[in-house]
Write a structure and sequence with these properties.
152 residues, alpha/beta, 4-stranded mixed β-sheet
C-alpha cells in the first residue's frame, strides 16, 4: 500500500497506533507534514519511507509517485502515470487540472496524472488500485459531480 504523504494530524504515538491496525505492507512517500524520526515507532509501521518512487507494473507500464504534483515527469511521453496528493480538492487542484487540459490541447502531451488525496470523490477515504483510481477519475470527469451522490 503506497501512501502519498501527510498521513496524520495526530502525534506519532497515536498515528503509529492507527497504522499498526491497517493491513498490508505500507510504503510512505513523504509529504510536507511528515517529520518521522528514523527509529520511531511510527517509522516501524512502514516497510520504506522515501520522497519519490517509480514503480514498474510490467516491462512497459510505469507509475511515478510523489506527494507533490509535477506538470512533467519521467516517462510521461510513454504514458507513464503520475499519482500525487498535496493539493487536496482545492484551487491548487484546479490548477493541476488546467495544466492537464492545456498540455493536451496545445501540445498533445499525455497527461495521465491523478490526484489520490483521500478526500477526492474517486478515492472516498479508501485504498484503491490503479485501475480503480483511473476509472473513478474518468467517471467523475464525465458526470462532473460527487461519485458518492445518490440518484433521486
Amino acid at each position: 500500500v503506497y501512501i502519498l504523504g501527510d498521513i496524520s494530524w495526530h502525534d506519532d504515538y497515536k498515528t503509529a497506533e492507527i497504522f499498526r491496525q491497517l493491513k498490508g505492507t505500507k510504503i510512505l512517500i513523504k509529504g510536507n507534514h511528515d517529520n518521522i524520526k528514523r527509529d520511531s515507532e511510527l517509522a516501524k509501521c512502514f516497510a520504506r519511507i522515501q520522497d519519490y518512487a517509480e514503480l514498474y507494473l510490467d516491462k512497459k507500464n510505469k507509475v511515478v509517485m510523489s506527494h507533490y504534483p509535477m506538470p512533467f515527469w519521467n516517462g510521461q511521453f510513454r504514458d507513464t502515470v503520475q499519482l500525487y496528493g498535496h493539493v487536496h480538492n482545492s484551487h491548487q487542484w484546479n490548477m493541476c487540472e488546467s495544466w492537464i487540459e492545456e498540455a493536451r490541447r496545445l501540445q498533445d502531451i499525455p497527461m495521465r496524472m491523478y490526484n489520490v488525496g483521500c478526500m477526492m470523490p474517486w478515492m472516498s477515504y479508501t485504498p484503491r488500485t490503479l485501475e480503480e483510481i483511473i476509472e473513478g477519475y474518468e467517471r467523475y470527469k464525465m458526470i462532473g459531480r460527487d461519485l458518492n451522490a445518490k440518484d433521486d
